Amino acid sequence: MNPPTSVILKRDCAVVRIPAGTTDTLPAGAEVHLTQTLGGSYTVQGPGGLFRIAPQDADALGLEVPPPVAPTASGPVNEALVWQTLRTCFDPEIPVNIVDLGLVYDMQLAPVPSGGSRVDVKMTLTAPGCGMGPAIAGDAQVKLLNLEGVEDATVEVVWDPPWHHSMITPEGKKILGLE
């Protein structure tokens, strides 16, 4: 089901202002226009700018709160599943996941003494001034921690090397119409 493109907020709603990354609240009754609904979060154009609404606040938009977006698999977590999970994370302004956008520079999966796994990710953003880094990294970390067998996960935002559009995968270029 496609959500409506324009909605009236049903309640006050916590938001993250894009691209500043600052938190704010949009009041009940405000009209917003959905611009992106990928990866479980919502990007809306509302009074005063562009905002990201977290999945748990979907009810403010009149939508059902979605279940966590994470692939399921049987058996221990593996690298393929971690990469698949990272592909469910999106920049709120760009309709391409962080892997195909070329933002993930490194991913390490290691066993921990208790028998589970630890995941460490290094990622960047398309621009150093973007304040959305903590929100995007936090989204990735939560999704990784929701994987069965992952006991610890860190997602670090790094700036070296600087991101360049040449880092976008062929799939990402196709989505963006660059091929």
The CATH C-level class name of the largest domain: Alpha Beta
Number of helices: 3
Radius of gyration: 17 Å
**Number of E strands:** 9
Strand content: 25-35%
**Major sheet characteristics:** 6 strands, antiparallel
Please write the string of helix (H) and strand (E) elements. EEEEEEHEEHEH
CATH topology of the largest domain: GMP Synthetase, Chain A, domain 3
Mean pLDDT value: 91
The H-level CATH homologous superfamily of the largest domain, spelled out, is Fe-S cluster assembly (FSCA)
Low-confidence stretches: none
List the domain count as a whole number: 2
Overall body shape: globular
Architecture overview:
The protein has helices spanning 79-86, 133-145, 170-176; strands spanning 6-8, 13-18, 23-26, 31-36, 42-46, 49-53, 104-111, 117-123, 150-157. It is of the alpha+beta class and 179 residues long. The model has no long low-confidence stretch (mean pLDDT 91). The strands form two sheets. A six-stranded antiparallel beta sheet has the order 1-4-5-6-2-3, with no helix packed on it. Strands 7-8-9 form a three-stranded mixed beta sheet.
Please outline what is shown here:
The chain has three helices and nine strands; from the N terminus they run E-E-E-E-E-E-H-E-E-H-E-H.
Write the layout of secondary structure elements.
Layout: E1 6-8, E2 13-18, E3 23-26, E4 31-36, E5 42-46, E6 49-53, H1 79-86, E7 104-111, E8 117-123, H2 133-145, E9 150-157, H3 170-176
Parallel strand pairs: 8-9
Antiparallel strand pairs: 1-4, 2-3, 2-6, 4-5, 5-6, 7-8
